[in-house]
Amino acid sequence: MEKITIMYYNQNMKKILCFLIITLGLAYGLTCNSCSQEIKGQFWKGKGPYGEFIYCDKCYNSQNKCSICKRPAANLLYDGKNYVCSSCQSSLPKCAGCGALINGQAWKMPGDGKIFCDKCHSSGDACDVCGVPIPAGQATVLEKKRKICLTCRDSSITDPKEAERIYAEITALMEKKLNLKLKTPVPIKMVSREEMKKVAGKNIKETDRLFGLFVSEKKKGYIYFLFGTPRHITLYALAHEFTHAWQNENAVKNQSDKISEGFAEWCAYKMLVEKDDREAAKLVENREDDVYGRGFRYFKNLEEKSSIASVVQHARYYKGK
């Protein structure tokens, strides 16, 4: 998660004596930005993100002030803690977690670009799936040390039969759209995070972010996928691992990670697009890592220059560098 600064509004209001501005021999009186009356006597002057403002002493001292830009105003939104003017409400982003306006330090998520306030980021809980900070009291506990946010919970797959239906759709689409078919059917297994770690063993790093895994054991293949992930992640993981199962049967051995993982990403992406899940497909497009991100773009560029059939043939016989 990237640490950013949204904005620091500071009017730096100064109290000064009223005077007439003389320009080209003409005299112009100053007018209060709040009551629109000509100012006589002392007034307050400031400059901020919305330009320069002038207030008479009465308006400045009698009206509530925006807690962000510090300007006095008659109509302010009070959220139980702060007064905020309409200009700041419309110009400042809201925390994707608690909904509070963000002014100052914030945290931006990679991929979807969601922004979170410092309080939500430091709350201690992060979603096991999407990684966003979870506001206090909103975490759903799936298993020991594994919590998900409300958004991911709403479409989480916890029923193995439902996962089987998704997998059946994927295998049908893989054959119809990409001409990928397994010679020997590969069963799927829904597992916990701890079970996934045991299956992965010491050969795979960062098992805390592992949502699916294809394993070939004694000439028998299995696809493991994580319990409780949202529908789009389950679909993505099953499609990605199905591709590895196909590679195990059809592709040349000892392919580079860029080729094997890049092709699996491209196939998963094609399935997400077929299911009209553009938002999830965008997450694949936005990956920037060397293996998955660059590998995906390698095959996507190849498709744009040739055809789906050519991409599959390339993935079957090319080892990579």
Number of strands: 15
Largest beta sheet, briefly?
3 strands, antiparallel
Shape assignment: elongated
CATH class label of the largest domain: Mainly Alpha
Mean pLDDT: 84
* Low-confidence runs of at least 5 consecutive residues: 7-11, 15-27
End-to-end span in angstroms? 31 Å
Helix and strand string, N-terminal first?
EEEEEEHEEHEEHEEHHEHEEHHHHH
CATH topology term of the largest domain: Neutral Protease, domain 2
- Number of helical elements: 11
Helix content: 25-40%
Name the beta content range: 15-25%
The name of the CATH architecture of the largest domain is: Orthogonal Bundle
Structural class assignment: alpha+beta
**Can you say what the CATH homologous superfamily of the largest domain is?**
Neutral Protease Domain 2
